[in-house]
Amino acid sequence: MLRISNHHVSKIISVLLLVEVAILIASVYLGAGIRFHGATMRYIGTQSNSFFLSACAFAMVIVFSMSALGMYQANFREGLRNTLLRLMPSFALGIGLITLIFYLIPELYFGRGLLGLVIVISAFGILIARVLVFKSSESGLLVSRILFLGSGPLAKECHDLAINNIAYHKYDIVGFVPTPNEECQVPAWAILSADESLLSIANRHNASEVVVSVRDRRGGSFPIDDLLECKLNGIKVTDAPAFFEREACQIRVDFLQPSWLIFGSGFDQSFLRAFGKRSFDLLVSMLLFIVALPVMLITGLFIFLEDRGPIFYRQERVGKDGHTYMVMKFRSMRNDAESGGKPQWAKTNDPRTTKVGSFIRMARIDELPQILNVLKGEMSFVGPRPERPFFVQQLCKEIPFYNMRHSIKPGITGMAQVRYQYGASVEDAVQKLQYDLYYVKNNSLFLDILILIDTLQVVLLGKGAR
């Protein structure tokens, strides 16, 4: 995994992205060569530097469209047919966006005939590149060999994560080195003999990383000297919480220690980060408000026509440092949704939802008025989802570290919203908190952009609708 601004990115996806950007830019030049034959250089020369900018714009738009439709969360077992089926709507979206860019910036326009040819060339090139990259990953070129210290429940969880997370990284599991006084919960055939040193076991099996997956580290049975020896000999040693943070983008609260949070990296709350985030919030919010204004006007009209009730819904939520504010959303439930006076969790296919409300929830249109909360400074565009005071009091008592999510501004979208399905229980709140803590610890402009792209995927594909 590569680490960019505290966020871990798959090496395979990074390689694929760079290869595809090169293919897309090269496709524009190759298309020009085929279409204009010997006059290619003269054609490019008449376009001056704008031709290279046009090629870069085309590449960025197609990559963005592929990202928005989940093409960079690809499964390693994805075959040629499935790749082609996923590629077609991505290019359809890309064609629409690049056409809009050509209309807004005519200097980048390079002709419909050339665009059609470039689309065919680049689609074929990306299809071949994906097959080759994924086949290379399966052959072991981008596979990491890891060894687990421990054989109990935590070791099994780490093993399952490493096996099931193949969409981002591929691991070859060497085995498990047991520790004393630990209940074995992994297959017996995967247990390695502990008669030799941990370094010897790692070298013999060519392991590049040791994941420490032991809960109880008290007493003299924990092999701290062996782990130090591995570290000094170039073998990476990773703690289980860090392994979950890296692979699942979660900070697990069930075995989290305050010392790990205190002495670990992250939690950037500097002036520079705050200034950059606020500037990003204002820019994105104003652009989205301009683009979404027609949709918001139509939505308000339909809400009013359905039951002649209020268009907007205001509700108290908990924001940064525990301060409350009134969040604004399009009303998606009946006026008597909480006639009993007691707050209720929202449910999947909630019967209190109106017909218009069901659609705007699925399309996330109900969240758009929160742009006003962002412009007022009460919210950020990306951050933990704001919760009601009634539920916050309950969850703070039942879930450790829950209040940490209030150390930054809440957001319209966030890591939990794009990584976890809609939830309405304490158990769901725990899972979502683990994503929120990851964001609080590792938030950056780079991560904000990734979450916005994932949010677009959620909207376009209707994931997590409730």
UniProtKB/TrEMBL annotation:
**Bilayer topology term:** Multi-pass membrane protein
Going by the UniProt record, its keywords in alphabetical order are: Membrane, Transferase, Transmembrane, Transmembrane helix
- What stretches pass through the bilayer? 12-31, 51-72, 84-105, 111-133, 282-305
Name the Gene Ontology molecular function terms of this record.
Answer: phosphotransferase activity, for other substituted phosphate groups
Q: Where in the cell is it found?
A: Membrane
Q: Kindly give the PANTHER family that the UniProt entry links to this protein.
A: COLANIC BIOSYNTHESIS UDP-GLUCOSE LIPID CARRIER TRANSFERASE (PTHR30576), UNDECAPRENYL-PHOSPHATE N-ACETYLGALACTOSAMINYL 1-PHOSPHATE TRANSFERASE-RELATED (PTHR30576:SF0)
Q: What is this protein called?
A: TIGR03013 family PEP-CTERM/XrtA system glycosyltransferase
